[in-house]
Amino acid sequence: METKTISTTIQVAQISELSVADRELIEHAMRQTDKSYAPYSRFNVGAAVRLVDGSIIVGCNQENAAFGVTMCAERSALFAAGASHPDIAVTSIAIAARDSNGFTTEPISPCGMCRQAMIETETRYRIPLRILLYGSAHTYIIEGITCLMPLSFESFM
């Protein structure tokens, strides 16, 4: 029997250490939390994606009493980008969340469905996705979704 070790590298930065472009993307995600519809969880999530041409597309979570119909912020932004600009690659995504106490201190991590959508985005455009997970204490910077989902289901069509 063989054992394999999977490791992940995540950069941890203060907002002031980020590039202007990364801060701008996070600010868009933060503003999107105001547009979130979260009457059940009261957990407002915003996301913003940057396309290779510099455009920014935003999304936010939209809850539903039938929870399976709920759309996460990450997929909302990724799918809006794909629908509006199908031939322009997505290069990065920023995610921010807040609750009744304000923005989360620690960065939140995307759910499994959103991670799979990010994998499909990388597969579609054939470039790694830069992921910025914002928390008021610090931001996680992740280069490529495989760091969050190493044994992923990929489409080889």
Secondary-structure map:
Blueprint: E1 11-13, H1 20-32, E2 44-51, E3 56-60, H2 73-84, E4 90-99, E5 102-103, H3 112-125, E6 130-134, E7 139-143
Parallel strand pairs: 4-6
Antiparallel strand pairs: 1-7, 2-3, 2-4, 4-5, 6-7
Describe the overall structure.
It is built from 3 helices and 7 strands, in the order βαββαββαββ. Strands 1, 2, 3, 4, 5, 6 and 7 form a 7-stranded mixed β-sheet that branches. The protein has 157 residues and is of the alpha+beta class. The protein starts with 10 loop residues before the first strand and ends in a 14-residue tail after the last strand.
Q: How many DSSP E strands? A: 7
Termini separation (Å)? 32 Å
**What fraction of residues sit in β-strands?**
15-25%
Question: Which percent range fits the helix content?
Answer: 10-25%
Mean pLDDT rating: 94
Tell me the overall shape.
globular
The number of helical segments is 3
Radius of gyration: 15 Å
Low-confidence stretches: none
User: Sheet with the most strands?
Assistant: 7 strands, mixed
Report the structural category: alpha+beta
Order of helices and strands: EHEEHEEHEE
